[in-house]
Amino acid sequence: MLVLRPVEPTDLPQLHQLARDSLVGVTSLPDDSERLREKIAGSCTSFDSEAQANGPQNYFFVLEDLDSRRLLGCSEIVATAGFNEPFYSLRNRHFTSASRELNIEHGVPALSLCHDLNDHTLLRGFHIDAALVRTPFSGLLSRARLLFIAAHAQRFAEAVITEIVGYSDENGHSPFWDALGKHFFDLPYAEAERLCGLQSRAFLAELMPQYPIYVPMLPQAAQDCIGRIHPDGQEAFDILAREGFETNSYIDLFDAGPTLYARTANIRSIARSETATVQQQPHIDARGRYLLSNDALHGYRAIVTELDWQPGQPLSLTPAMCAALNVTDGSPIRLVAL
């Protein structure tokens, strides 16, 4: 059985392997033991905190096979984007110029460096083993974060965002980076993303042009990248799109990947999640797939399984399901249909 749980210090070796296998552009999963160790420590502190509002906390989760004890994926929630340093993006909006004398008004799309998305809750770090892509466990890895937000709403903002990895080719070249960022840093795209993971995107963002960049002045290959998703990032996009996330006028600073946005209260798994009381049974009928979680903090657990449940009734779970979720008879459980 696969279960999502908070990361632990002993996960470092396996987490480092996940980082090595992750997609270029997933800067929140750096291929560096010391940086990962710091991330794990920060997450453990966040889960142990008594926060009553969204602050600097980061909540890092891993997907574990309980039989083999192997980690098969990870994902993260940052309670407040831009809490310790600005969270930079490019705002893609039309710049309108007009001449009354000639009776001409013309709009041109322009990219502007901004940190408008500060103070939103940020989903990031999604990575899953290739064998599990397009399976229900991808949904578990991504959407169980939303049930955690539902259970601990006071710790998060009123809106949630996520950046989807933008287009780069099989050699790790990004036409958008080559047309824009590379002029300000003598670095290939993959190296710039690696530095962001090891240090901070702020130090690179602050060297980017501070004035609007007119999109028609970029090469066509770079223009085509704006809002374009890397093929390996499509599943992460699709899962959250089904949750009600939508694209907006913001794109990633380095590869022009889209930013998704949703009001927290309107996210499907948050708005439609329900609670029930556990009733342990040796066998259950399976008539529909559900995402289940307990409402704990450091002991948070989530699984995806087939159930038969009616609202207002106890939720029948097998002993194996109860063990995976760290619940017993009478425990509250949160669930949402998939």
Describe how the helices and strands are arranged.
Layout: E1 2-6, H1 12-21, H2 33-48, E2 58-65, E3 70-78, E4 89-99, E5 104-114, E6 121-128, H3 136-151, E7 159-163, H4 175-179, H5 189-198, H6 201-205, E8 213-214, H7 220-223, H8 234-242, E9 246-251, E10 258-263, H9 268-271, E11 274-280, E12 288-293, E13 302-307, E14 315-317, H10 319-325, E15 332-337
Parallel strand pairs: 6-7, 11-14
Antiparallel strand pairs: 1-2, 2-3, 3-6, 4-5, 4-9, 5-8, 7-10, 9-10, 11-15, 12-13, 12-15
Helix pairs in contact: 1-2, 3-8
In brief, what are we looking at here?
One of its GO terms (molecular function) is arginine N-succinyltransferase activity. With 338 residues, this protein is of the alpha+beta class.
- What is the topology, as strand order, of the major beta sheet? 1-2-3-6-7-10-9-4-5-8
Kindly provide the name of the CATH class of the largest domain: Alpha Beta
Instruction: Give the SSE string.
Output: EHHEEEEEHEHHHEHHEEHEEEEHE
Report the sheet-strand fraction: 25-35%
What radius of gyration results from the CA coordinates?
A: 21 Å
Approximate helicity band: 25-40%
User: How many structural units, i.e. domains?
Assistant: 2
CATH-derived topology of the largest domain? Aminopeptidase
What key phrases describe this protein's structure?
Acyl_CoA_acyltransferase, 25% helix, five-stranded mixed β-sheet, alpha+beta, Barwin-like endoglucanases, transferase, acyltransferase, ten-stranded mixed β-sheet, 338 residues
